[in-house]
Design goal:
CATH class of the largest domain: Mainly Beta
Largest sheet: 5 strands, antiparallel
Helix content: under 10%
CATH topology of the largest domain: OB fold (Dihydrolipoamide Acetyltransferase, E2P)
CATH superfamily of the largest domain: Nucleic acid-binding proteins
Shape: globular
Strand order of the largest sheet: 6-5-4-7-8
Structural class: mainly beta
Distance between the termini: 49 Å
Radius of gyration: 17 Å
Length: 119
């Protein structure tokens, strides 16, 4: 079993004239050690899909050492670091419902709610 990475950014494929292949480029983050890498994947390469567990949680507050989330099903609390949230902290308001994504029972990311823009 290989190392699981979380794809944070992705660039659209670009055609290569000679080989007539497409490349997908993106930035991955190792969920265990926090390392960041840039990778290129050809369209014919096989990538194993990781099955993740999104859980409905609520952002409560920042206690100065981390961001506190509460599982809406069992009320357990979870503290996530600023590094784990990667620039999303400015969008977190107390009592905001989010989805925390888990892989092998460890948090690997947070999905913020989608907001619709009203005219």
């Amino acid at each position: 079993m290989g190392k699981a990475d979380l794809a944070r950014d992705q660039m659209l494929p670009r055609a290569r004239r000679r080989a007539r292949r497409s490349l997908h480029a993106g930035r991955d983050e190792g969920h265990r050690d926090g390392t960041k890498t840039n990778q290129r994947i050809r369209t014919e390469d096989k990538v194993e899909r990781a099955f993740v567990d999104p859980r409905d949680m609520q952002y409560l507050y920042n206690d100065g050492t981390g961001y506190i989330f509460m599982d809406k099903e069992n009320y357990e609390q979870l503290t996530l670091s600023d590094e784990m949230l990667e620039g999303q902290t400015g969008y977190l308001l107390p009592n905001t419902d989010v989805q925390v994504v888990f892989y092998n029972d460890k948090p690997i990311g947070v999905e913020l709610p989608r907001r619709s823009c009203s005219p």
